Amino acid sequence: MQTVPTTKTVTADIQKEVTDKILRKLEQGVAPWVRPWRTVGKGKQGGALPHNAVTGRPYSGVNFLMLAMEQLDRDFSTAGWLTFNQAAAVGGSVRKGEKGTAVYFAKMQDRTRTVQDMVTGEEREESFSVPMWRRFWVFNVAQVEGLPAHLAPQAGLPKGEGVEDELAAIAQRCDLRGGFLHGGNQAYYNVFSDKVVMPQVEAFESVDHYACTLLHELTHATGHEHRLGRDMQGRYGDESYAFEELVAELGAAFTCAALGIDGELRHADYIAHWLTLLGRDQRAIFRAASQARKAAAYLLGELDGEGEQCTPLPVTPQEERVTA
């Protein structure tokens, strides 16, 4: 008798699937979020971020990582992706035998639980929501024939345009209570004084390298209790510290990609810690990617005063065909 998978087991399978892919990269000494947009082609279908080729909307979170890895592994020259049905709708067709790449979405399910009041001892029902993950399939533009000459353009700033102004606006948006200082030879964020310290721009190989380092530190700053309020109490070597460094790396990667910044991220010292973290907790990469996306949205001015996205999330897609 065949067992029908439950939503809980499907979610667990997806978490393992994604985590295993990232662990394999980390074991090779590669952080898959480091400049995944670098080799993107610059033709009509080019774009800096993994994005939906029809709508132009960038993928984010875990899907950003999965599609970037797939693009590099398979040497696709474009970051544009679309579903089987989207390809058909614009007159294209997926080449016979081509395999799709899984991307993931979470549908929130409402649950209730019984909790006990710590003071009165009375029991009451409490509502909460849990994410139930699903996968669907997309194809790279390079796997599709007969597409129109131009698809939706990639959203975001063209490389090199407006980056300095954008960095200044991001730093101002953070409104660091301890200030933003230049000097010395170390880059760091001090959560207690709420201060970012950076070496002078001239100390870096390029302005892009400076920008990536600054965005890493400013992503840390978004975790301050007066901003997004993440757990910032970890110490070097423990899992809380490794998790926050993962959030900062991903947040900087998402923000760099959105701005078209092509610089090095600081990951080498943390790979061993991330291997341990992800090996123990298959939900960690999902939580880190979610918090990093929120941090990037904060830096880019996409959140309102309550920390909620100003723009609606994309409509949940339907599952589609895996192969042509």
Automatic annotation (TrEMBL):
<feature type="domain" description="N-terminal">
    <location>
        <begin position="13"/>
        <end position="139"/>
    </location>
</feature>
<dbReference type="InterPro" id="IPR041459">
    <property type="entry name" value="MPTase-PolyVal"/>
</dbReference>
<dbReference type="Pfam" id="PF18818">
    <property type="entry name" value="MPTase-PolyVal"/>
</dbReference>
<feature type="domain" description="Polyvalent protein metallopeptidase">
    <location>
        <begin position="180"/>
        <end position="291"/>
    </location>
</feature>
<dbReference type="GO" id="GO:0003697">
    <property type="term" value="F:single-stranded DNA binding"/>
</dbReference>
<dbReference type="InterPro" id="IPR017113">
    <property type="entry name" value="Antirestriction_ArdC"/>
</dbReference>
<dbReference type="InterPro" id="IPR013610">
    <property type="entry name" value="ArdC_N"/>
</dbReference>
<protein>
    <submittedName>
        <fullName>DUF1738 domain-containing protein</fullName>
    </submittedName>
</protein>
<dbReference type="Pfam" id="PF08401">
    <property type="entry name" value="ArdcN"/>
</dbReference>
